[in-house]
Amino acid sequence: MSINLDNNATTRPAPEVIAAITECLESDWGNPSSAHRRGIGARRRVELARDSVSALLGCEPSEVIFTSGGTEAGNLAVVGGFEQARSMNARRTIVAAAATEHPAIRDSIAECARLGAEPRQLAVDRNGLVDLDALEHFLKAEGDRCALISVMWANNETGVIQPIERIGALCRDAGVLLHTDAVQWVGRMPCAFATLPIDLLSCSAHKFHGPKGAGALVIRRGVRVTPRSLGGSQERERRGGTENVPAIAGMGVACELARTWLKLDAIEQMAALRDSLEQGLEEALGHMVVHGRDVPRLWNTSNIAFPGTESQLMVVVLSERGLAVSGGAACASGSIQPSGVLLAMGLDPELAGSSLRLSLNRSSTPEMIQSATEILTSALRAAQET
Ligand code: PLP
Question: Which of these three, 213, 243, 261, is where a domain ends?
Answer without folding.
Answer: 261
